[in-house]
Amino acid sequence: MDKSATIALAGNPNSGKTTLFNAITGARQRVGNYPGITVERKEGSVSIEGVKVNVVDLPGCYSLSAYSQEELVARKVLVDECPDVVVGIVDATKLERHLYLAIQFLELGIPTVLALNMMDEANKQGFRIDHKRLGSLLKCPVVETVARSGRGKQELMQAALKHAEDRSGSWEPLEISYGVDLDEALKAMAEIIEDAQFMTNRYPARWVALKYLENDAEIIAQGRKIGGVAQDLEELVVKTGKHCQKTLDTTPDAIIADYRYGLINSILRQDVLERETAQRERIDISAKIDAVLTNRLLGPIIMFSVLYAMFQITFTFGEVPMGWLEAFFGWMGDTASAILPSGLIQSLVVSGIIDGVGGVMGFVPLIAVMFLMISFLEDSGYMARVAYMLDRALRLFGLHGCSAMPFIISGGIMGGCAVPGVMATRTLRSPKEKLATLITAPFMPCGAKLPVFLLLIAAFFTENEAQMMFGITLFAWAMALLVSKLLRSTIIKGEPTPFVMELPPYRLPTLKGVLIHTWERVWSYIRKAGTVILAVSVLIWAAMTFPGLPDHESDRFETNRHAVTTNVQNIEERQAMLASIDNLEAQAALRHSVAGRIGTFLEPVSQWAGFDWRTNIALVGGFAAKEVIVSTFGTAYSLGEVDPEESTSLSSRIEADPSWNKATALALIIFVLLYAPCFVTVVTMAKESSWRWAIFSTVFSTILAFSLAVVAYQVGSLLLT
Amino acid sequence: MENLLRSMGVNEKARISSINAHGEMGRRLRDMGLIPGTEIQVVGRAPLKDPVALKLRDFTLTLRNNEADCIVVEKLEDSNG
Asked: Which of B22, B33, B55 sits opposite A100 (nearest CB)?
């Protein structure tokens, strides 16, 4: 008979939860040191002693109150999915605060096993913890673990499964005394709840009463929907609140927190926790690092140097394998042209598929190097310092220190992706700051826009590549901030949200964690290239191929060709003339195609910014996915190419094109940076806010981008040429 | 001697005497371990003097100055230097 069990991993952000999850399931998952990076639901399965164990990684949270999305999600999973057992991961070096959450699992009554994680660090810092004693005082199994090395994970899983079996699904809520006044109120309320069977199908009665006293917005709202005794409970809460105010000059929720910490302290003092002070003082390495890295003068200098160094490293190390990949796809194109008979199929394979996908895949090494560095910064704890240092400045623009993260993920240090960036805005508590971040994050130079910039820089700004890329990034930040300020002082006005955030200790990231993290992002990029981009490439190839030239037009080219062949004697001259006729025909065909017609239709307006119909085709395609812009250029220009054997690079083709100059390139860089986010981002934005805001962002960004591109082109044409 | 948290210098230690924050802000502060009686130490300020970083219960927390204004503290002598 098959046995199965569900285990939920729960704990504070930075408790090593994700690392433990990776160790247990071996699943690919992101590890972050930034509070709240694990917002999504992560699951994995593993087989232990014949039991199929489904492991759910809950979002990191500090408490089970209704403060953040993460807390609400964690609570919902525990209550609605009733996992067989919860593994509460507790950072042994911060036992007191981490037990605050653990105590709340016990209060909820769900079978709980505690993992005392980071025991190696705790020992190093001079903490002596009696885990058996802690277990007997809390009446739940406690296992020591070191998630980084996987130590204790076997024992933990065994203990969890055994506890799940012992309790076999029964919930035994821990009753904590909250002092005479609250205990009485809780008892009275619990009785009312029990009698009315009010929400008792989901929660234990005393727990509901407790949440009412804590003024838990979600529970109160649920209660009001049900009606019945909700009114009575709310009245009791008000009465108790008044009483507390009068006699103790405080509120019930403050008393509850006091008693919880009081209980934790009394447990720890019963010979559970001992510390060797001298050693602890000596080993606070994070404080020493912070003294330098967040220093008033050095901090910002180091921060900008780190960001700048990332560009240089990315280019230096990413360029070499990028060249290999380019050469490889060039070779594939040549081979395919040689094998396949010329005609529609060859054109589809070479121009549609190989050029389209190759253009995207060429950037994989670059993206891999960069993600490697970003993962390292995230996992090391430095990212949280960036938020800390930037908060004051970001607040000036109506944003939050935590806005730095969505910006950075979206490409704020170049080459991210707006989709996870927009998702990362979930950590922002205030809807207003979130919305401003959400709308401006897609301005960042995401990985898909990079190829466009690289292409144009390679063609027109070869002498200072890194400086140009750095300049583009700074411009993106400036635009994101100014537009945020504009939005926050017009359509999304409002007060700033609290900045209560943990600064995690610095940790040397594990190689495995960083690699998993990097691989995940690179793989999602490759997958996108292999699916969406491939489909869009083919679609755009079709739009650029059909309908073909009408017969009388092709006949005219044929007549010209015939005339040249018979009349021109000089072989070289004849070849050149034939080639130019072929080019003209290809161009005429492209113009005649569906895409050409759209591009030509938009040309009268787009030429204000210097964009011709070919650029327009690429930009329209770019709305499907920004990667498509380069591949469309590839298709557009290779369609105009006579000799498929000759694989000159796209950038030199564009450079040689008379309709291009520095001003056009600059206008296009600005437009691509700022215009409508790709379709996937728009859908994500709609999910995170509403369709109204997503559509607003699309239209608004495009208008903004076009206006600035026109200015850049007009001014640039005067100055640069 | 009671002071606002804002007035504390870097490396100064204090015990929280009261917190005048209600609703969500109050809950957030409590969840992060800021309750009356807690010993805190200011460990740093961001380059623009705001937010402030505190050490309490063996971890580091950051707060904006205007949030720190909800917290009344009693300064402690630095006994174990």
From this structure: B33
Q: Which residue has the higher pLDDT, A37 or A683?
A: A683
Same domain, A94 and A240: no
Sorted by where each begins, the domain ranges of chain B are 2-76
Q: Which of the four CATH numbers 3.40.640.10, 2.30.30.90, 3.90.800.10, 3.30.70.3270 does domain B2-76 have? A: 2.30.30.90
- Spatial neighbors of A368 by CB under 8 A, at least 6 apart, are A318, A518, A522
Token pair of A104 as six digits: 């709340």
Q: Does B41 touch chain A (CB under 8 A)?
A: no
* ipTM for the assembly: 0.92
Q: H-type helices in A270-297, by residue range?
A: 277-282, 285-293
The pLDDT assigned to A281 comes to 58
A479: in domain: no
The proportion of chain A whose per-residue pLDDT surpasses 90, expressed as a percent, equals: 36
pLDDT of A391-436, one tens digit each?
899 999 999 887 887 888 788 876 677 877 787 776 676 778 889 9
Nearest Cβ partner of B59 from A251, A401, A502? Answer: A502
pLDDT in tens, A543-573: 878 888 888 888 888 888 888 888 888 888 8
Q: What is the CA radius of gyration of chain A?
A: 31
Tell me, yes or no, if B15 comes closer than 8 A to chain A by beta carbon: no
Work out the burial of residue A508: count CB atoms within 10 Å of its CB; fewer than 13 is exposed, 13-18 middle, 19 or more buried: exposed
Put simply, the answer to whether B30 touches A254 (Cβ < 8 Å) is: yes
pLDDT digits (tens, 9 = 90+) for A92-106: 999 999 999 999 999
Burial class (CB in 10 A: 0-12, 13-18, 19+), A463: exposed
CA proximity to A444, closest of A423, A475, A400: A475
Measured between its terminal Cα atoms, the distance across chain A in Å is 79
pLDDT, chain A, mean: 84
The b/e string for A557-592 (b: 16+ C-beta within 10 A; e otherwise) is beebeeebeeeeeeeeeeeebbeebbeebbebbbbb
* Domain co-membership, A56 together with A152: yes
| Shortest alpha-carbon distance between residue B68 and chain A (Å) | 10
Q: What is the pTM of this model?
A: 0.78
Q: What is the pLDDT of residue A283?
A: 57
Please say whether the beta carbons of A378 and A517 come within 8 A. yes
Q: Of the candidates A249, A487, A500, which has an alpha carbon nearest to the alpha carbon of residue B66? A: A500
| A251–B33 CB contact, under 8 Å | no
Q: What is the pLDDT of residues B31-56, one digit of tens each?
A: 899 999 999 999 999 988 889 999 99
Per-residue confidence (pLDDT) for residue A33, from 0 to 100: 34
Residue of A268, A383, A499, A507 to mutate, interface with B, max B Cβ within 10 Å: A499
Name the nearest CA neighbour of A545 among A705, A375, A350.
Answer: A350
Residue B41: closest CA among chain A residues belongs to which residue? A287
- In angstroms, the separation between the Cα of residue A367 and the nearest Cα of chain B is 31
A670, A709 contact by CB (below 8 A)? yes
Q: Does B26 touch chain A (CB under 8 A)?
A: yes
Interface contact B33-A503, CB threshold 8 A: no
Same domain, A114 and A189: no
> Which chain B residues are Cβ-neighbours of A11 within 8 angstroms?
none
Strongest mean pLDDT among A7-11, A272-276, A353-357: A7-11
Cβ contact, residue pair B49, A251, below 8 Å = no
Phi, psi of A516 (to 5 degrees): -60, -45
Please name the helix (run of DSSP H) or strand (run of DSSP E) that holds residue A601, with its range, or none.
helix A594-606
